[in-house]
Design a protein that fits this description.
This protein is about 60% helix and about 15% strand. By secondary structure, it is of the alpha+beta class. Helix 4 packs antiparallel against helix 5. The mean pLDDT is about 85.
Length: about 200
């Protein structure tokens, strides 16, 4: 490979950094969506404690359309084992209970006419290990999402090189810069997944 003089190399680095930053900004939404989807999936994994995020996937039939539970009620953790759902409209109690059951989360809701309560069953060792395995699967899907976002940027860098807009040396610098961004996101996924696994296994 041809060696790049120091001054020219700095110029190359600045130019490629600007181009890569522009491409990353253009595709930032793809990286953001991948991370948001990962966080949403991860929040729905049960741990030993009550967490309102466990009901993130619950959809409620309300006034002829389906909407997320959080749009029709407030959800709070009353204690370590109990979730309390307070509907904005008490007439939606039955629809909310049905939505929770339809979500197949393994919860058995009960209501007293004012609020709906869910008491989380205890997780045994086998179930905790299953949840840890699920976290691993969600993390892998998250990394695939980041990889797909990376490929979109990578194709544009390659196209710029094939169109003669950047040199092969600049292409390599751009690929390195892109990989640094991908490594950062993958590191965040790993960190959140490990924290979730620790939470699951804490009795």
């Amino acid at each position: 490979m041809e060696r790049i003089p120091y001054v020219r190399k700095n110029s190359v680095l600045r130019r490629i950094k600007t181009m890569i930053d522009q491409l990353l900004n253009q595709h930032q939404e793809n990286f953001k969506k991948a991370m948001e989807h990962f966080a949403h999936e991860l929040s729905g994994v049960r741990t030993g404690r009550a967490n309102p995020a466990l009901l993130n996937t619950v959809m409620v039939e309300s006034y002829g359309s389906k909407m997320p539970l959080e749009h029709v009620a407030s959800v709070t953790a009353s204690d370590a084992k109990t979730l309390t759902i307070s509907p904005w409209d008490k007439s939606q109690m039955t629809a909310i209970e049905k939505g929770i059951q339809t979500a197949n989360l393994g919860f058995n809701p009960s209501n007293d006419g004012n609020v709906i309560r869910i008491t989380l069953p205890a997780l045994n060792e086998e179930r905790r290990k299953e949840m840890v395995k699920l976290v691993g699967q969600i993390a892998e899907k998250g990394k695939i999402g980041i990889r797909n976002a990376r490929e979109a940027v990578h194709k544009e860098i390659k196209k710029a090189e094939s169109d003669g807009k950047i040199s092969k040396d600049e292409l390599q610098v751009g690929q390195k810069k892109l990989q640094e961004v991908v490594d950062k996101y993958n590191g965040e996924i790993k960190q959140h997944a490990e924290a979730k696994e620790k939470e699951i296994m804490t009795v």
